[in-house]
């Protein structure tokens, strides 16, 4: 029996496939390669190039493979783009998940772990954020992820599907082997953007706002290493396999760093001065997002290993320094 990883050529998906294969699991990857890279797929995983909105392709896969659980990363994930092109997010994220669930129900595949996001909360009522805090997304990306969670809930009631939603905070870092890492085009995330400066691809980093109510005025985020996220998916799948009920878990470090602090850590990791210039606030940025991941620790037995931001940034730097053009340099 195999695990199907949808979106297994993307950033978090590819890291999860590496952990699954290291743990001796059989893995089938499906990805439309719109934002993922074939080179990121572990060579021991069987690969299908397909789009989850293609019911026929999914049915063919479920008929051909013995799948006993699904991990679903296949979604669009840029907050800014979701505001300028919301229908893309309804199409890829919601409609895609609807087609996937139709195919799973038809083939009797009843366990799914999927990527949700801290963006489901919107502006937090308090930090650290708990799973049962209010979910009022402030962008279309978070809204479609929340709707995916609700869709799973209704399908569970009607058809007995079991699901775990994992709400990631700020995923970052790269695999310690240096073989895979973060590669987005365009890149919008803070750590890879900072590292473009010592890589000679950018003159300076822009700090989006220094008048937030935080210790140095810049936004606070909870940065969690991608391999720790990957491990949580395996634990969540095992939890469902051993009879666990539907559940939602935050995944973060529980510690917040300001944008300024992240830049300082990157300066010391890379030995480069990394000039920073102040820029206006970016629309929709909450001042502070920090997770309580206590539930994942207690219920799933999750033990994040990369608690130290310097180590996280060092893994990212090793990847970006050696792959300045991501997977596209051959
Ligand atoms: N930032 C800058 N300069 C940059 C890029 C980012 O100052 O060039 C700041 C942002 O304003 C923010 C922080 O760095 O305060 C982190 O920004 P990212 O874009 O790296 O990450 P976000 O916190 O905006 O978003 C992440 C995920 C989303 C997810 C969200 C949940 O990328 O998918 O967390 O809160 F929805």
From TrEMBL:
Pathway: Carbohydrate metabolism; galactose metabolism. Belongs to the NAD(P)-dependent epimerase/dehydratase family. The gene is galE. InterPro entries: Epimerase_deHydtase, NAD(P)-bd_dom_sf, UDP_G4E. The keyword Repeat does not apply. Keywords: Carbohydrate metabolism, Galactose metabolism, Isomerase, NAD. Coiled coil: none annotated. The lineage of its organism: Bacteria, Bacillati, Bacillota, Clostridia, Eubacteriales. It catalyses: UDP-alpha-D-glucose = UDP-alpha-D-galactose. This is UDP-glucose 4-epimerase. The keyword Cell inner membrane does not apply. PANTHER family: UDP-ARABINOSE 4-EPIMERASE 1, UDP-GLUCOSE 4-EPIMERASE. Homodimer. GO terms for molecular function: UDP-glucose 4-epimerase activity. Residues 3-252 form the NAD-dependent epimerase/dehydratase domain.
